[in-house]
Amino acid sequence: MKVKALIACGGGIATSTFAAEEISRIARECSVDVQIVKSRIVDVPAMAKDFDVCFVTSGYAQAIDCPLVRVNGLITGIGEEETIAEIRKALRLAADKEFSQ
C-alpha cells in the first residue's frame, strides 16, 4: 500500500516542491512507497483527513486529522538530521498502519 502524504507550504509551490523531492528520497531509502500531494498551508485542515501523514514547511499549530511533521529543517538546514529522523519515523508508522489494515 502507498502512504498518502500531504506536503504544505505558504503558497503550495516552492518550498513544498523542494520538501516533496527530499521526502520522496527519504521514503525510497526507507523502502516506503509514498504518494505525495502538495498544497498551500491554509488548505491543510480541509485536506488532512484524506492523508496518512502531513508535512509542513513552517510553523503550524492547528489540530488536524492525521499525524503532522514540521519539516522546516529540510529547508533551513537547522536541525536537518533530527527532521530527517522524524520524517523516517512518520513514514514508517504510516506504512505500518497501511500494511496492517
Query: CATH architecture, please?
Result: 3-Layer(aba) Sandwich
Q: What percent of residues are in strands?
A: 15-25%
Major β-sheet profile: 4 strands, parallel
For the record, what CATH class applies? Answer: Alpha Beta
List the helices and strands and how they pair.
Elements: E1 3-9, H1 14-29, E2 34-40, H2 44-47, E3 53-56, E4 68-70, H3 72-76, H4 80-100
Parallel strand pairs: 1-2, 1-3, 3-4
Protein architecture, described:
With 101 residues, this protein is α/β, with parallel strands linked by helices. It has one domain (3-100): Rossmann fold (3-Layer(aba) Sandwich). Helices cover 46% and strands 21% of the residues. It has helices at 14-29, 44-47, 72-76, 80-100, and strands at 3-9, 34-40, 53-56, 68-70. Strand 1 (3-9), helix 1 and strand 2 form a beta-alpha-beta unit. The longest helix has 21 residues, at 80-100. The chain is globular. The chain starts with a strand and ends with a helix. The model has no long low-confidence stretch (mean pLDDT 92).
